[in-house]
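Bench log, entry 3. Co-assembly request; chain sequences pasted below exactly as received.
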Amino acid sequence: MFYQTSIKTVCVAAVTFGLIAYAMLGGYFAREIVIEIALLAMLAIALDFLAGYGGMISLCHGAIYGVGAYIFGATTALSGTDPWLAALAAIAGTALFGWIVGAITANVGGIFFIMATLAFGQMAYVIVFESRALGGDDGLAGVGRFDLSAVGVNLNDSLQFALLCVAGMLLAYMVAATVLRSSFGRTLSGIHANEDRMQALGLSVRTHKANAFAISGAIAGAAGMLAAQHTQYISPEYLVWTLSGEALVVVILGGIGTLAGPVVGAALLVTLEHFIGGYTDRWHMFIGAILIVAVMAGRRGLFGEIEHRLSRRSETKTEAGIHA
Amino acid sequence: MSGTEFWATQFLNGLQLSMLLFLLSVGLTIIFGLMHFVNLAHGALYMLGAYIGVSIAMWTDNYWAAFFGAPIGVTIIGIALYTGVIKRMRKEGPMSQVLVTFGLIFVIVDLVRIVWGSIALGIPTPEILQGQVSIFGISYPAYRMFIIALGLAVMAGLSLMLARTSYGAMLRASVENGEMASAMGIDVEKLLFSVFCVGCALAGLAGVVAAPVFSATPAMATDILIPTLIVVVIGGLGSLTGAIVGSLIVGFIQTFGAVLLPSFSSILVYILLAGTLIIRPEGLVPARK
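Structure output for the full assembly:
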């Protein structure tokens, strides 16, 4: 069950302010890192919403991110659609994609669910890769960006675009948190805890799971839509299945089922990547080793561990207070 | 080439792909059926088989040394993975297993890049299998025919072993009901370990056999993984017959799809997979009834 605890608020606020400060004080390269963290955090929030609270461990979120990037990219680059309309299409399209995957896989559990989502993601990848109209493996250039000049924001400026991405991350967090605190979110946690009982209570588990997948897909698609605007170029690389794995790594590293954990995890992973990447190009070996150690050491993750320790301390305090 | 010859060649191509998929999926499916362990790093073992084969072939200048050496080498690596990581992860849920073996792929692929580099390496086809053979009046590369024969031989050997030996009977009993088998005095742990070793050896064998045709590249580890997982899910986890049926279906769909519906072929298998998961999530030939 999700609670917006003060630890979560402090953590998310700290990461947000850290990113804003780094983007404002640092140069172009710092802003690239901030954008990378914000977009990865959005994708990981989408995944944690589904995996941590709905128990659906999806390996197609990388593909959904890519579908979002492609719907936005292809409509702006090929037909010159207004970016705002294209963004709406990207979010609606990825929500629909998520809903379909969720509806089909609703009866499938455990490892079959993971494999099925992996296969759906690959299907999207193959379709994009082989589609000549979408540029195939060459990708598409000339993707547009939002026009915010009416409110005095120039998104072709790297700082302002970085701040837009941070805002996107914060919005994604707030949307996920709001949904999780609603009755819909409580029901989702109920399905995660005991699917049979929720079914017996008269709930349509399939519809509920599909809707949750749609919400998660829309958040992941929004992240992909921003990524397409960032690079202004899209290629099938956006849909590759290892991206889904990387998002799952972020969720695990930060703490699954905490929602704030993915934000911390994304910041940690991207920072580590650039730090280690400065010494060696064998970055993937480290990410693999970190993942193995993180999973084998326990499943709480970084944020989960902090939250666990702090809440245990406050519990002992309360207990001591009672005894006193 | 006449029409019949063309289709016969496509048939053999499909069969050859199916046999490679079979060698890989049989290990994966039985390890899953028996240990409830999902080893995504199975594709990485296949890649290691190819690379170890390349090195042995280079040192000894003999294909057959590589052919026998690579499965042994991969089994040793598999045993190290088993004792170091997999054994501890067996009690965990599927997500932890997927994540840990996903991490193993990253580590193994980068280690291979460090040891062997990123360029594609090949093994020369052994002399005796160079050239073409003539079968049913069509000529077909001898080496590819050898892959088909090897796959069929492994298939027959495993089926006989499962059906006719006491080891096979113990194995079937353990897949059906591990606790009961254990209560009947079968050392399930030891059985599991031996099955894991056989699975690794077959993955290594598939790798070294594929190397002369496809060359060894670091991308092999993930490229083969998804078709193999599809074979396993379509066939039914844990079942030998399922692995046979699944690899034939996937191998033929990929081959004939590429000829008949080129623009549509790659997604055919995914559609098949989605269909299987909706209609028969336990697979076509499940191990447990």
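The first strand of chain B starts at residue 132 and ends at 135. The mean pLDDT of chain B is 87.
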